[in-house]
Amino acid sequence: xxHDHHHHHHSTESGNIATAFWLNFSFxxxxxxxxxxxxxVAILADAxxxxxxxxxIGFAWGASKMAQKGADDRYSYGYRRWSLxxxxxNSTILxxxxxxxxxxxxxxxxxxxxxxxxxxxxxxxxxxxxxxAAVYKLRFGKTQNEQVLSWHLLEDVFGWxxxxxxxxxxxxxxWVWIDPVLSIGFTLFILLNVWRNLRxxxxxxxQVTPDPALYNELRSKLNQLPFVQETHHLHLWSLxxxxxxxxxxxxxxxxxxxxxxxxxxAHIYELLRPYQLAHTTVEFEGPDEVCRDNPGVHDTVDxDxDxDxDxDxxxxxxxxxxxxxxQPIDTSKKVTFVKSNHSQL
Length: 345
Fold this sequence. Notes:
Layout: H1 2-38, H2 41-66, H3 82-110, H4 117-139, H5 144-172, H6 178-205, H7 212-223, E1 228-238, E2 244-252, H8 258-272, E3 279-285, H9 297-311, H10 322-326, E4 336-340
Parallel strand pairs: 2-3
Antiparallel strand pairs: 1-2, 3-4
């Protein structure tokens, strides 16, 4: 029964998002045609905005289905990073579309052209109804995906209310500059939001630390553990801006037995659990152990091995340096553990 409930939950979410997508995408086509027929750049500007929303909703629809697939051999972290590619494509389309609208609106501000106000009013009313229906469909959704999309579409409702008010003014006055002013305002608002999203997307692609404050907090708490001498190679990056990944090396205060290491793991698990990290990898190192990820470590080991091998082919058992023979590596001090908590979209 729990499995059936889980499947039903995802089916409901996918169905709600699918309905919102088709409503929004269909109306975007109507907007583009209507904007051309009414000679309104304000309508076209909102059409560009709705096109971006349609792309975002379309990806969310696909992502809600992909979330049901677990990690595989090719996508060992799952499919969350596809959202970054989608965000990059959406942002590019919105930027190009916005610049096209500005190229049309600014000349009209200097030399205003009449727009067909009754047609604009009809489209604005339809816009309020269609976007309002999409908001209603998603507003009572239980997932974060549905909640975020509902607020995004609510902005579109307010945008169409503004177009409706402008259209009514245009109908009763000869203020033909209202249409280009509205379009420029919408477009600048779109560009501002797109720029913020684009900066975040590019940073995530470059695996920039998603939250410097969180990074420092995690480093501080790990360093304060009584069995930790120091922390290094702490890496915090994000799959998609929400699902974060942490890897770290912890040098222990003293050599530890297997039972003690198990206790350390449990302690660290409890420390990290409140942060709801999607994936964590922690490696323990002995107090005098050389970290294999430090620059130059591999080169030094390889050079020493090649040098000894060249000078003693007859007896391989004595090819290592005496210092390395006297200090064998205790593999019990180096332990890697992984805690996976792949949440679904």
